[in-house]
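Support request, priority: normal
Reporter: lab tech (M.K.)
Component: structure prediction queue

Hi team, I submitted a job for L-aminoadipate-semialdehyde dehydrogenase from Grifola frondosa yesterday, and the status page still shows it as pending. I've pasted the exact input below so you can check whether something in the sequence is tripping the parser. The sequence length should be 355 residues. Please let me know if I need to resubmit or if it's stuck on your end.
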Amino acid sequence: MMLADLVLNPCVHKVYGLNRKSGEDVRKRQAGGFARVGAEVDAHWRKIELLEGDLSKAHFGLEDEVYAKLRNVTHVIHNAWPMDFNRSLTSFRPHLDAAVNIVQLALDSTTAAPVRIIFSSSIAVVGCAPLVTGDSAPITEAPLLTVDAIDHFGYAEVKWVCEQVFVEAGRVFEGRIMPSSMRIGQLTEPEATGAWNANEHIPMIAKSALALGCLPLIEGMASWIPANRASRVMVELLFAPRPVAVYHLENPARQPWSEALEVLASALGLPAEAMPLPYVEWLACVRADTNTVRNPVGKIVPFLEDEFVRMAMGVVVLDTVVACVALPMLEGSKPLSEGDLRRYVAFWRKEGFLV
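Reply from support: The job had stalled in the queue. We restarted it manually and it finished. Here are the results:
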């Protein structure tokens, strides 16, 4: 989605897409990705050069003549990351190396202007901030200086470390590197297709609800933003004047969980009398059903007991004032519609994730 938004931007002349090696034809794989999210690039393919390499290696594991072409880049979006909440900080070492190598690319740049870098960070970086401060106010868009506020799992910890890498690079190499980290809240998939990855926790909750016969009762407000909107916001940020170190990306138009759950229950075909169970009781039912094929959230119970409660139910609220001032696309974002939610369920059914 973001690659499509970049090549459709008239200000962009060339985009290098660095992909992991997979054994598949890289252009065919990318075309499939475009189709999956409903993106049309047509003649703009001429702007795209797809490469395969390894971000954790020096020069990304590319041949010297290929890396030499990358030295002409003016803007970098570092958006590749495994969504795995069960891994330790040390297991993410290749991703730390990748951040350092991206800084090195910026230093190797032959362009006169500072190289603009956008790092896709996470709400999890500040996931424990309310517990540390005792303050329920929205969390400000600023570098986090204390590790106490980071959520206590490897994914969150390594995102914070990478934030610090880019903050420090911007300080030490001021005038050569212009980095920003975008802390991202809950993304849904594109509105047009409903293609939401079934390996994420919201689709997993939906599938487990079918096995258990009901959804959980979730209090508070949701701040979901579709990936197509988030992509346009990131591209807008890439070219924003006078950028700052940290921005927050979640939907400033928050909506009650109760409304979303009501639509999801209807779309899933749950009986009208199947009222949502109080969250703690629902989790007890999850633990009691050990079949994680039909009840996939059984695999992420620790996350649902702790991080999900804080980050998804309104305990952790990202302030988006700075981002909204700089990024009109974010400021104008609306809540998800009933049609959006129903398209997600329809997609999971089409993919065979739901029966």
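The first strand starts at residue 15 and ends at 20. Residues 138 and 234 are 21 Å apart (CA to CA). Let us know if anything else looks off. Ticket resolved.
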